[in-house]
Specification:
By secondary structure, the chain is α/β, with parallel strands linked by helices. It contains six helices and six strands. It has a four-stranded parallel β-sheet with strand order 3-4-5-6. It has a two-stranded parallel ribbon with strand order 1-2. Strand 5, helix 5 and strand 6 form a beta-alpha-beta unit. Helix 2 crosses helix 3 and helix 3 packs parallel to helix 4.
Length: 162
């Protein structure tokens, strides 16, 4: 009873290659054309997509999509789940993005942390522990036991020593 749609932004005329690959594999996709990484129209485009698709939940996975998702989900009146993998402090720009993300993610309806230590970091931001679920490995490996292995390097045209 769950319909999953993978959405992505395109700052160019063509969709990102990964979106084309998963679409070819039979997954439903949505493309949100934007002029740049900071195109404010992205918020309304995602909100419109949520309403048009009659979605109940939006999941986001990084600081940029957390900001856009927070605002779009509120406009579309859907639940928002933010995934939290951790933060780095490499450059001043990354530090600013990290601060924005730490502020915005607290407004998610639920947060998925990839470890207990990340959950602890989130609770130190005064986020209720009951709002945070820890998922160490979201893939149930047993479900793929009978699937024939493929060479992803070969499939995507990478050299074998890459």
């Amino acid at each position: 009873g769950i319909n999953i749609v993978i959405g992505s932004f395109s700052e160019h005329k063509e969709p990102p290659e990964f979106l084309e690959v998963i679409s070819a594999d039979g997954l439903e996709t949505m493309l949100f054309p934007v002029t740049s990484a900071h195109d404010r129209s992205a918020i309304q485009k995602v909100a419109d997509g949520l309403v048009a698709g009659k979605f109940d939940i939006l999941c986001t996975h990084d600081y940029r999509t957390h900001v856009i998702g927070w605002m779009a989900a509120r406009r579309a009146k859907v639940k928002w789940i933010g995934f939290s993998r951790g933060w780095t402090q490499d450059t001043l720009r990354v530090k600013v993005y990290t601060l924005i993300d730490k502020f915005v993610i607290r407004f998610a309806d639920r947060i998925v942390a990839v470890s207990h230590s990340q959950k602890d970091r989130l609770t130190h931001l005064w986020i209720s522990p009951g709002k945070i679920a820890v998922v160490h490995n979201a893939i149930e490996l047993d479900r793929f036991a009978g699937i024939q292995a493929v060479s992803l390097k070969q499939r995507f045209g990478f050299p074998s020593d890459a």
